[in-house]
Design brief:
The protein is α+β, with helices and mostly antiparallel strands. The protein is built from twelve helices and 35 strands. The protein is globular. Helix content is 20%, strand content 34%. Strands 28-29-31-30-32-33-34-35 form an eight-stranded mixed sheet, with helices on both faces. α7 packs across α8. It has a domain of 257 residues: 3-Layer(aba) Sandwich (Rossmann fold), CATH 3.40.50.
Amino acid sequence: MLKRFVRTVLSAACLLLPAAAAAGDLIPVEDFARHVLVSDPTLSPNGQYVAVNINDVDGESHSLAVFRVNDTTHPVSLLRLPKYETAADILWVSNTRIVVAKGKLEGSIEKPYLTGEIVATDYDGKRQDYLYGFDSTKYGTRASTRGTDEGWGFIVGRPTPANGHFYMRTRGWNNNGYSTLYDVDATRNTRHLIGQIEVDDMSFMVGADGQARFAFGRNDDDQYVVYHHEGSRWNQMSSAQVGGSFSPIHFTPDEKGIYANYAAGGGPTSLVSEDENGNNRKVLARASSGSIGDIQWTPYPYQPFATTLDTGVPTFTYIDPNLPVAKLHRALVLKFPGEYVDFLQFSQDGSELLFSASSDRDPGTYYLISTQNYKVSKLFAASPWIDPAKMAERRPMRFKTHDGKELEAILTVPNSATQTNLPMVLLPHGGPIGINDDWFFDEQAQFLASRGYLVLQVNFRGSSSRGTDFVESGYRQWGTGIQDDLIDSVKWAIAQKYADPNRICVFGASFGGYSALMAPIRAPGMFKCAVGYAGVYDIPMLYSKGDTHQSKSGRSAMRKEIGDNDAALAAISPVNLVDKLDVPVLLVHGEDDKRAPFAQAKAMRAALDAAHKPYEWMSKPGEGHGFYSEKDTVEFLTKLQDFIGKYIGPGVKTN
């Protein structure tokens, strides 16, 4: 039964490939609606097993599966999780024991949110135990002594070498202003305190002595703070030490220093090494155009050997190209041309390496390589139904706004005969603060490109990857500066003859849904249609409904990022500006959305009705912030292509 279930999950998509090819050149909508089959593979310390998330073909059920690395068709065990729950964080604490932080999925736009529950299981599915969470008094080996576990638990890491223990950060439901760190024995379900600070929701870094050495994060006033444990107390690092940003990553191999992300001012972050006390800071990798993004690490004792930037097409810069692991990485980059080769995890002795290869056209495949004989074995493809050869190229580019600000644009160019004057869809990202679009595979952009549309995405002011100054330049610019950046990007695409000025629509989700309606209001005549998906249309409503306002830190962030003057916020809310909206609108929303509540869509619909403006409507019960059900997503994407096609599709006459 177990083997049959997993074989069904892993092979279901492959069975559909011939039918998709027979259907003609148009890639089926269903291919863009499916969830990836496997994700987050994690290698056991001895390199003999791999644990992965498996998504059932129903798109709603998830399991933790364990395979031998030499047999990925017959699972050793399968831990099924309740509907919409997933293994959000997976950590091997020994060669036979795994701990899992449970997550819940409430919408395609949001990442799985951690429920705060942590469970443990042996690799063969035996000795399952509940280590932390709100159900601790109901079951588990320590149920009678866990009545005070009223909070969230988070996996921080584990000692090296693996000894069956892991580090767990906790945060109380009562928001008592403490962050706590434990060393947990995942077999005996015992724990002892190794760090505590009277600041809520801090992250920790553990030292060689097994004690918390750094605590860092945003406090209740939404201020970024860093603390260093010295003697018996926590000392807050000064602004001179923290600079524009500072976050510790790992201790150096000699355990005397640390690696950290750091920016002296508000510009892009660099990778640095320094003494634990902050002296002898040395820049290992930096760039002027973007922050250091991905970092590639050697086996234990960990040392960074290559970095990429968070902007543009990711290109590796090697810190020490003569390291054996750097030479191996360069060889694999040559073996997988056009792909991004990411070293995910080494076995404890460094003899086995789990890595992935992905690109703008490829969601990715996971491989194992022996560092002894260099034999490469394919483990899993994330989305085997996607044919990279049929996907569109994504081109990061630069342009300047009307006031001289240089921004990054990403064009997804359809595989068509012509590359100029294409019908175009502007696709603004959500957030908007601290989020960015990147070069990697994007389902929505690829779907629209497969229908013949050029897709334009913009890392407007407020986006991440370019430092705190750039992020903060988006504060209180929801309806003004950010929209100007989006409008300038369209003008640039037209001037470069990428886009047909008479065939442009805008579609976005979350804040992108807000922009989808606000951009046409700010630029009359530029767009032929607008699609708002899980959008925000009444900004003052964010303070009374929605989940962001429920915590003090969330309210502090909102005041900084969008302001709290009701009159000013109402003046940049689309519900109050429908008289200036001159395009047909499609509104799509989940009726159980907690981030942008359904009331947002209903308010926008009421405003459109009152103004006698044309619109189409789609809502789904049981859906959250973005549709999660594959069936509902197929229906939405079908409606999206039909709606956009009416206004800028083939054969449509425009003026």
